[in-house]
Structure formats: C-alpha cells, structure tokens
TrEMBL record:
This is Ribosomal RNA small subunit methyltransferase I. The keyword Transferase applies. Catalyzes the 2'-O-methylation of the ribose of cytidine 1402 (C1402) in 16S rRNA. Belongs to the methyltransferase superfamily. RsmI family. Keywords: Cytoplasm, Methyltransferase, rRNA processing, S-adenosyl-L-methionine, Transferase. Pfam families: RsmI_C (PF23016), TP_methylase (PF00590). The gene is rsmI. It catalyses: cytidine(1402) in 16S rRNA + S-adenosyl-L-methionine = 2'-O-methylcytidine(1402) in 16S rRNA + S-adenosyl-L-homocysteine + H(+). It comes from Venatoribacter cucullus.
C-alpha cells in the first residue's frame, strides 16, 4: 500500500518548509488539505501541480474510506493543514486514527508548530508543559476551564485568535492572579514577530496600548503554579484502603 505522509508546513515564513517536506510534496500522487485555496498558493510557490482533496472537520470521517482505497491502490498521499503541523489544533486526527486501525502506513514529515516555536524563545520553563489549544469561546466555560488549570504546576500553553486575545488575557489575569510570569508570542516567523514578557496584567497593558499589537496570531504561555494547593477532592481509593485497614 501507499503511505499517507503527515507534512508540516510553515506558520508564516515560507523558508521554514523543510527540504524533505518539499521532496515529499513533489513525489506524492494526491495532497489532502484543509483549504484547497490556501494549499494551492503554497504549491504554486513551490512550482508544483497536484490533485488536491479537501479534508476538514466536517468531512474528515467520510474521507477515511476514500483515502484508504487510494493507499491500497498503491497511491501515496500527503496531508497538510493551512499552517504548521497537521492534527495540532488542526484536522487530521480521525483520518490518522482510522488509517492506523486499518493497518495502513502513516509517516510524519516533521517541521514547524507554533507551540514549540513559541516555547523555544519564551524564557519560561520548558522541561514540562501542557498544551491546552484553544479555550472555549463562551465566557462561562472559558473561566471554568481556566479555574481548573490554576493549580497546574507545568507551563501552560494556549492558542488564541486576535479578536479574543484581550478578553482572554484579562480573564487569565483574574484567574491566575497578577504575579505569574507569562509570555505572549505574536506573528511568529513573520515580519511583525513580537514577544511580550512580564506578568499577565503587564502583558495585557502592552497589547491593549496599541491596536497594531492586537493583529495577527497569538500563542499565550503562563508559568505553572509554583505552590499548587493540595487537591480538595477526596481520593476515594486512598480512603477505601484506609477504611479497609481499620476493618476487623
Ligand atoms: N497546526 C498549527 C501548529 O502546528 O501550530 C496550529 C493551527 S491553529 C488552527 C492556528 C493557531 O496557531 C493560531 O490561532 C495561533 O494561536 C497559532 N499560530 C499559528 N501560527 C502562528 C504564528 N505565526 N504566530 C503565533 N501563533 C501562531
């Protein structure tokens, strides 16, 4: 059978496409992509013409059988998303899971992801971190999620869209408090790449001060809680063991 290659593409700077990614895109029979218009532009830049197959969250499950058939016929395919690594806050998970279940080969062609790019230059602890992707849009669910993460000792990493960045930073400052070291990375690898450092209220002030700072794409990183409060939930298994020891 042919292979499905999961190919990472740039998050801004086109020179970040790896040599191997370019070779694989040139060699495959079909390219599955999130948005055909977006991927056409990348292929045009590379001087490639390939049949495209759209794979997005609404049709992904229906595509599994179609992709499996192409691979069984010996065709090779690449999956790309609009930016960065597919499956990372992007389509691809049901497809890869489905192909794995069918025993078909899936091979990663690694490259850029905004999470790792942001963390690598943020100056926050990177030995342990937790990637939370996008927060819920609704204020209530967003606050609930943040509250559940307030005791997390690992560095927290989030993706956020420009029209929600101020509101999200404001809520983070309320939930995590005014002391936590944080970093926001904007427009990574692009002309207006900017890193904002400081506490959450300090970063919020810097980004609110100027409309231009609210443009583009954002990764928000917050240092973990150095003194997490002990969990208030009862550890039922521990309780059971204690009770058992007391029984005659
Ligand atoms: N698959 C991508 C990856 O591997 O990073 C992420 C796709 S997700 C739909 C898009 C989000 O990633 C943006 O809203 C932003 O939070 C983050 N992102 C992508 N490119 C970025 C960039 N150049 N600078 C900062 N954040 C970026």
């Amino acid at each position: 059978a042919g292979t499905l290659y999961i190919v990472a593409t740039p998050i801004g700077n086109l020179s970040d496409l790896t040599v191997r990614a370019q070779q694989v895109l040139a060699s495959v029979d079909v390219i599955a992509c999130e948005d055909t218009r977006h991927t056409s532009k990348l292929l045009q830049h590379l001087g490639l013409h390939k049949p495209l197959l759209s794979v997005h969250e609404h049709n992904e499950r229906d595509r599994i059988e179609q992709v499996a058939q192409l691979l069984r016929k010996g065709q090779s395919m690449a999956l790309v998303s609009d930016a960065g690594t597919p499956l990372i806050s992007d389509p691809g998970y049901p497809l890869v899971q489905g192909l794995r279940q069918l025993g078909l080969p899936v091979t990663p062609i690694p490259g850029v992801s905004a999470i790792i790019t942001a963390l690598s230059a943020a100056g926050l602890p990177t030995d342990r971190f937790t990637f939370e992707g996008f927060l819920p849009h609704k204020a209530g669910s967003k606050r609930e999620k943040l509250e559940a993460q307030a005791q997390e000792p690992r560095t927290l990493v989030y993706y956020e869209a420009k029209h929600r960045i101020l509101e999200t930073l404001q809520m983070m400052a309320e939930v995590f408090g005014p002391e936590r070291p944080a970093c926001v990375a904007r427009e990574l690898t692009k002309t207006f790449e900017t890193f904002y450092h400081g506490t959450l209220p300090e970063i919020l002030a810097q980004i609110s001060a100027d409309d231009d700072q609210q443009k583009g794409e954002f990764v928000v990183m917050i240092a973990g809680n150095p003194n997490p409060a002990p969990s208030s939930e009862v550890d039922s298994e521990k309780l059971f063991r204690l009770l058992l020891a007391e029984l005659p």
